[in-house]
Each structure stands twice: as structure tokens, then as C-alpha cells.
Amino acid sequence: MNARLRWSGVLKVVGGIAMLLGTIDPMEGSVLILVGSGLVALSMFLGRRERWVIRYWTWVFGLIAVGVGALFALSAVGGIGGPRGHSLWWGLLLLPYPLGWLMALLAGVIGLMRLFQRRHAAHV
Asked: Is pTM beyond 0.85 here?
């Protein structure tokens, strides 16, 4: 196994763990989820995966980045609703964050299922 593939595997595992740890508290862990999704996207590029896989993880990272950016921006101006008077509709800017997270979760579950299927097929 060459160094590029080894680093790809390490980054994928570290990124996945970072995303899982960030999920414990999605608001406070948003930066951890952002970094984790970036590491997984980088690992797909380094591992020279299929073009559609790289594009998928780039979208995941981009959606999470936009959503986390909106989260920080809205927090900086006092949040939404409440006494500040900012409309709750501004909360729509946050939707890319959970959408990207759900896409990452789906890809992770599918990846684990494939891993278990390959291991099961190897033992049969």
C-alpha cells in the first residue's frame, strides 16, 4: 500500500470520528463536523476515488461549510426570533448544515454496509 492510500485511509477514519464526536452536540460541535467532513473529502481525493464520490463529498463539505457559516453569522447578529426581532425565516440559511450532515451519514452507513459485505464474502 503506498503512502497516498495510507494517508487517505487515516484521514477518512479521523474525519469520520471527528464528525461522530461533533454530533454529540451539533451546535457546539459544528466546527468539528466541518473539519471532519473536510478531512473525509480530502481523503476521497487523495485515495483517487471515482469522480462522482469526490464530487459527492465536496458537496457534503460545501453544504456543511455554508450552513456552519450561516450559524456563526446569525449568532454574531444576535440569533433569530426573540427580542432581537430577526425573522425566523432567516433560519432557512441553516438548512445546508443538516442536509450536508445527513448526506455524510448516508454515505457512512452505505460505506460500512459495503465493508461488512466484503468481509462476509471473504469469509464464506
From this structure: yes
